[in-house]
Amino acid sequence: MSLEKQLEGQVALVTGASRGIGLAIARKLAGMGVRLSISARNEQRLRQAAEEIGRGRTVATVRADVTRPEDIAQLVAKTESSLGPIDILVNNAGIGVFGPVQNASERDWDAVLDTNLKAAFLLSKAVAPGMIQRKSGHIINIASLAGKNAFAGGAIYCASKWGLLGLTQCMAEDLRSHGIRVSAICPGSVNTEFSLPHGKKDTSKMLQPDDVAHAVETILTQAPQSFISEILLRPTQKP
Q: Using CB atoms within 10 A of its CB, is residue 197 exposed (0-12), middle (13-18) or buried (19+)?
């Protein structure tokens, strides 16, 4: 079976999918025959993303703020009612607040941790029972090399990504006996709207969103007896 058809008919939910990395992942999955649900906070961008991905493919859109537990519950419920049980969850939604830790506010902390870490916990917790019942499933958390490397001004963002990696590893141990693989992808700087304001880099040398989408494809198409638990993704040249 070709890679393009290996996931035919499976249901995937991708958060933060209206642009950047999330949109690239959604495009990749749609091209592999997945029945796709995409979510983001901006409804207009979400509709535009669905039109771009569409072209005869099954794409559901659900506007949701993943910092709100009630939105998460509705996101899962609407996805499953329109497409069926979720086979693949990609926790991609993320934000960053950068600057010296002494200048950071509790509001900054809550916004970043709720988006980057708590949402992944709540969404994974929502889909896990169904995956356990079916004895199969993939949960992929889009983390960052910032979850392994400290840098000045990155206290809150790094804390969220270090936490996400810890969550991923523990979830993987809890769920692997049920046939569920939980993995993390840790990209370096990616050429998106998120990365560009935070430094002057040569965008031609940066990772591209499709590079992260390819890593997702690699995880989802691995052999049944193997388990890629983590991918560290760097550009060939430093930007």
A: exposed
Residue 55 CB partners (closer than 8 Å, separation 6+): none
Does residue 157 carry a catalytic annotation?
yes
C-alpha to C-alpha distance for 233 and 70, rounded to whole angstroms: 33
How does pLDDT run across 83-130, given as a tens digit for each residue?
999 999 999 999 999 999 999 999 999 999 999 999 999 999 999 999
pTM reported for the whole predicted model: 0.95
Fold of 3-233: Rossmann fold (3.40.50)
pLDDT in tens, 32-79: 999 999 999 999 999 999 999 977 788 999 999 999 999 999 999 999
List the chain domain ranges.
3-233
Given a contact cutoff of 8 angstroms between Cβ atoms, the answer to whether 74 and 64 are in contact is yes
Q: Residue 193: pLDDT above 60?
A: yes
Distances in Å between the Cα of 48 and the Cα atoms of 99, 162, 169, 214 are: 33, 32, 34, 22
Q: Which of 157, 189, 209, 219 is catalytic?
A: 157
Beta-bridge partner residues of 40: 63
Q: Count the alpha carbons within 13 Å of 134 in the hemisphere toward its beta carbon.
A: 16
- The whole-angstrom separation of Cα 180 and Cα 178 is 6
